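To: structure subgroup
Subject: Chain for Friday's discussion

All,

I'm putting the inputs and outputs inline so they're searchable in the archive.
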Amino acid sequence: MFKALKSRNFKLFFYGQSVSVIGTWLQKTAVSWMVYSITGSVFLLGLATFLSMIPSLFLAPIAGSIIGRYNRHRSMMILQSLAMLQAGALALLIYFKVYNITFILGLSFIQGVINAFDMTCRQTMMVDIVDNKDDLPNAVALNSTLTNFARISGPALAGIILHNYGEDICFIGNFLSYIPVLISLSLMKIKKEAKATNKLQLLDDFIEGLDYVKKEGEMAKMLLMLTCSSLFVISFNTLIPVFAKDIFNGNAQTFSWFESAAGIGAIISAIYLANIKSVENINKVMIGASVILGFSILVIAISSNIIITLLCMILSGIGMMGQTSSINIYIQTKSSSKMRSRSISYYMMAFQGMIPVGSLIIGYLSHRIGTRNTVAIQGIICLISVVVYLYYENQKKTSKQNTCPVHYKVNP
């Protein structure tokens, strides 16, 4: 399970990130709880998520073109430094009790701009920091495992800090968590990449990348599946504070239980993915995970028992991680070296870019028809998307069978 850690650079990356991602979840949990507590508005809760992620929809293709041409290691250092400055600005704002929702939303947008480049760079750099390319799927899964360990410990720790010390400590903790990342990046020894000889042409690069994805038929279908899920399904997480505070009459600690439960499920899924020996049938993992995700969301929508709801949050974490990471692994392993950064940028568009749009839609729909009805619709959409995917898979197999040459047996 830990074979990718044999690579020195990946080991440094893994250890540095182990601290940073906890800080990220401290801040994410604190922002969600603080925005909803200050305003009591589901719409503004969705808007905060929207602003922190929407830049990926528009900037990911640009990031894919730029990062494919420049030193990814150096770019990562710059981007992490900028993220540290953003975290520091937010920490100062909250430390001095400036609870200005406009400032908070503005800094969330700046974070989204940085993340649009950072996430694309981070995923593209994975191939540079793993010595044995056969260990790449394991590295992707380990990185997901790390993120979701933080998803458990981060919100749980944030719940304790919010309840006992206040939100400013969460933001200061995130600011300090960038120090280990910058140290680990500075210690890496990565071979210099060959500089791109052709000029940067964003539109041409975008069209070329789309043509490549279309030709890779399975990749295109997976990205469409992810787009649908990010837009209509995964955004149900935006409503978790509503379940914690209003439906189950809880507090910040209750909210952290929901986040941690989803994190436990994601870890289970990531551990399974880290141990797979072949990626040839990774689409079957994606289909199974999508079914689990849709089913669990449906039960969450109708459940009035917090234990059952938390168990289904675990299942939703399994499904969500299985779906998104299996698609990530497929793209990382199947993309050509020339097109990898652009393929990953489309993954970021479909995943990170569509979630904020979905968050706004879900926030508005929840306001109109209620939270439970909205989440039920999301579960149904997830299951329908699986049926549509399987239908086109079957069509492809039927088409292949019909085009196969018929061999006649000739008697002597």
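Points worth raising on Friday:
The first helix runs from residue 8 to 39.
The mean pLDDT is 82.

D.
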